[in-house]
């Protein structure tokens, strides 16, 4: 198993673990971290659908995190 594959597994576990959290802001933070890992993973394997989707997920999570902090 090489380092790129390990990054993919870390991203997968991080995103999956985020759904176990009760606090929505923490869920979004951990999910955004996992999605950011998937962006790097997608770039390394040359998969643009993985990159595109996870940029979108990271952006949506970031928007709602900042929106909740400004209230």
How do you describe this structure in short?
This protein is mainly α and 71 residues long. Helix content is 85%, strand content 0%.
Structural class: mainly alpha
Number of strands: 0
Helix content: over 70%
Radius of gyration: 13 Å
Series of secondary-structure elements, N-terminal to C-terminal? HHH
- As a percent range, the share of strand residues is under 5%
The largest pleated sheet is described as: none
Number of helices: 3
So what's the overall shape?
Answer: flat
Distance between the termini: 45 Å
Regions with pLDDT < 50 over 5+ consecutive residues?
A: none
Question: Whole-number average pLDDT?
Answer: 97
Describe the fold and architecture.
This protein is mainly α. 85% of the residues lie in helices and 0% in strands. The protein has three helices and no strands. Helix 1 runs antiparallel to helix 2 and helix 2 packs antiparallel against helix 3. The radius of gyration is 13 Å and the shape is flat. It starts with a helix and ends with a helix.
Question: What labels would you give this structure?
Answer:
3 helices; 71 residues; mainly alpha
Secondary structure elements and pairings:
Blueprint: H1 3-18, H2 24-45, H3 48-69
């Amino acid at each position: 198993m090489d380092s790129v594959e390990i990054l993919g597994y870390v991203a997968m576990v991080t995103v999956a673990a985020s759904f176990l959290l009760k606090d929505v802001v923490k869920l979004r933070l951990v999910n955004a971290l996992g999605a950011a890992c998937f962006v790097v993973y997608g770039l390394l394997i040359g998969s643009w659908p993985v990159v595109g989707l996870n940029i979108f997920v990271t952006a949506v999570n970031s928007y709602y995190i900042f929106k909740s902090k400004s209230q």
